[in-house]
């Protein structure tokens, strides 16, 4: 079974359990067959790829079915086992092979999904994802005999298991100046996700006083949902920082490719401020470099980049779009509002763990607290991302566009963006969920709240 709604703009994601699943092992088998067929025309030589998965309960069965389907077409599979998404990107770059990882990122426990990359961690194209959807759904509808596919998979291609966690950790350590940092007490909230697997190997050797919350891998997420964009999922880490006098907290999402920072007061550091902070450090290393941001990143970031002699390129929201622009412009760094951070030296891919290491380096080489370090970069008041269930997303955006007509410059590059005098709003459909996402920022809180409340009243009425 493969239902069309699981195919998103950048990946696959859908419900796998309960009374109304959206895909299953038969669908995963069809995806594996189709993937191997498509890759024959995209990569030189025999089809070979590296496979990973997160800790979700449905992962082993779905991944095994995908492997059977791909091997039935002669594919060679290297199974890296449990991996964070950014670890899978690393292995793809390290081996110069395409990558496939089974994860639903920050979605609840009853979801699973797949993210793809080409060799060298390069993003797949929209055309690839469209063909994968069309051809896999047609194959699934035809009802291939799973036993026959499994038998063919056992005969064809090849399969081996190989762990790359230590190579991943060593590569991250090589990219950040960590020698001589002062002793830091660091709270890490793994949220029972993949940071519980990677953080000990990456952060453990650094001499930090580590306080790990929810480090046990558990795809049922018994403590809180693995989505740090939702404020309630940050509360435990905020409380722990204040109670223990920690210097900061790092909070990861389910597949650990995103990282949020919390300062010593328990306040959440806006991802745009982290983007600006890391951009300055990268521009010191390579003056005049290019930084990629998305359409929702604070306008403070291009200001900071320009002040430090860099150039900014703006992308649509989503890792496939940002990665493509990173490679096109040979950008040294990129950041999104959702706490995805991209590095040229990490195969132009996103990695929350490397971003966390940069924050630790900056803080560890300073005698200031994190709140003081980021103050110069937090120049606007953000609303944070506010989600609304809306039946007709396009109609709602049209209503808002009409209401704000003449009050600023508007574009439809990525949803609806309106730039007014001292404020900006962006309203766009989610790439992964049936939601409208609103982001507002302004030079002062009163203006931000006024614009925010006006838009919400329009779309929720």
From TrEMBL:
Annotated Alpha-D-phosphohexomutase alpha/beta/alpha domain residues: 5-135, 167-266, 274-377
Entry GO MF terms: intramolecular phosphotransferase activity; metal ion binding
Keyword Ubl conjugation: no
Domain Alpha-D-phosphohexomutase C-terminal, residue spans: 385-457
InterPro entries, sorted: A-D-PHexomutase_a/b/a-I (IPR005844), A-D-PHexomutase_a/b/a-I/II/III (IPR016055), A-D-PHexomutase_a/b/a-II (IPR005845), A-D-PHexomutase_a/b/a-III (IPR005846), A-D-PHexomutase_C (IPR005843), A-D-PHexomutase_C_sf (IPR036900), Alpha-D-phosphohexomutase_SF (IPR005841)
Signal peptide (UniProt feature, chain positions): none
Name this polypeptide is given: Phosphomannomutase
Listed cofactors: Mg(2+)
GO terms, biological process: carbohydrate metabolic process
Family to which this protein belongs: Belongs to the phosphohexose mutase family.
Keywords: Isomerase, Magnesium, Metal-binding, Phosphoprotein
Organism the protein comes from: Raineyella antarctica
Keyword Metal-binding assigned: yes
Domain of life: Bacteria
Pfam families: PGM_PMM_I, PGM_PMM_II, PGM_PMM_III, PGM_PMM_IV
